[in-house]
Amino acid sequence: MVMGPRTSSPYLEDLWEQLVEIAVRIKMEGVTLSQTSFQVELGFENGVVQVIFFVSGYDIRGFVVSQGNPILGVHIYFYSEDVLEVDSPYDSANAPGLGKALCHAFPDADGVFMFKSIPCGIYKLVPIYKGDNTVFDVSPPSFLLSLSHDHTIVTQKFQVTGFSVGGRVVNGNGDGVYAAKIIVDGHERSITDKEGYYKLDQVTSKRYRIEAKKEHYKFEILNDFLVLPNVASISDIKAVSYDICGMVQTISNDYRAKKGDQRISIPQKVVQTQVIVFALIA
After folding, report:
1. Could you give all domains of the chain from N- to C-terminal order, each with its CATH number?
2. Tell me, what's the pLDDT at 231?
3. Which among 143, 158, 149 is positioned nearest to 59, based on CA atoms?
4. What is the model's pTM?
5. Which of 37, 205, 217, 259 has the fewest CB atoms within 10 Å of its CB?
6. 133 vs 245, more confident
């Protein structure tokens, strides 16, 4: 027998009055409880129900989409500074670079993720979408949520906006070129680190024109380069020529420099650091 609150309707008022010496099963619904139902024996007098219904937590639900469609494989990590642990069937996990989470969840085929039986508090949800070789970009990168005494739906959907892919700029010896600007379809998108590596964020599956620029360097251009999520990295961008910096000196005032070009051989290994001095003797 399932009954609502005592004051829910005149019919139930009469029903409560007529109950004598009967076993009644009371069931609570709508929240996550330590016990959802119990049975009580009613006699010819008022009684006190000894069972305490304890609300263990509330549900948090949200959505993950890509171009408006549900998507699988996104990890939603759950963090909090004021809640130390949660009683959840979802296990804890380590998000890349973020430390151990309280728990985490995955969206289903409809793009819906859910955390059950979560106590009140302030939480941060962090979406991570990572393939075998690629980290995908998800917006927003995190969502701050204040959970009160009610089930909650995350109002802002997590959207997979693209993915990140990296590459490298090298000289003729295969050494990385530092501080080279990476130009993608005419727009500067990144800059290389000390080892020559760079990363492009929020790219989509399409063909791009990718080039590198740095003073005194000329690089090959990756024209019509197809970028896909399963690509481990972009092909190396190689330097094809360099500007040479030097000066011409005479040994003494008694000598005069000859006119004309002078051919020299410059090792590629030292082209970035060494100043070449030309000495021409008349």
Report:
1. 10-53 (no CATH), 57-156 (2.60.40.10), 163-242 (2.60.40.1120), 244-282 (no CATH)
2. 79
3. 149
4. 0.57
5. 259
6. 245
Q: Both tokens of residue 31?
A: 């929240």
SS3 string, the chain, reads CCCCCCCCCHHHHHHHHHCCCEEEEEECCCCEECCCEEEEEECCCCCCCCCCCCEEEEEEEEEEEECCEECCCCEEEEECCCCCCCCCCCCCCEECCCEECCEEECCCCCCEEEEEEECCEEEEEEEEEECCCCEEEEECCCEEEEECCCCEECCCCEEEEEEEEEEEEECCCCCECCCCEEEECCEEEEECCCCCEEEEEEECCEEEEEEEECCCEEECCEEEEEECCCCCCCCCEEEEEECCCEEEECCCCCCCCCCCCCCCCCCHHHCCCCCEEEECCC
- Of 129, 56, 52, nearest to 89 by C-alpha is 56
Q: Which residue has the higher pLDDT, 68 or 223?
A: 223
Instruction: Tell me the pairing of strands 135-139 and 103-105.
Output: unpaired
What is the share, in percent, of the chain residues with pLDDT greater than 70? Answer: 65
Neighbours of 152 (CB within 10 A): 17
For residue 132, count CB atoms less than 10 angstroms from its CB and return exposed for 0-12, middle for 13-18, buried for 19 or more.
exposed
| Residue environment code for 190-200, b if the CB has 16+ CB neighbours within 10 A, otherwise e | bbbeeebebbb
- Tokens linked to 207: 């063909």
pLDDT confidence of residue 280: 44
For β-strands 152-153 and 55-66, DSSP reports them as: parallel
Q: Which residues pair with 166 in a beta bridge?
A: 199
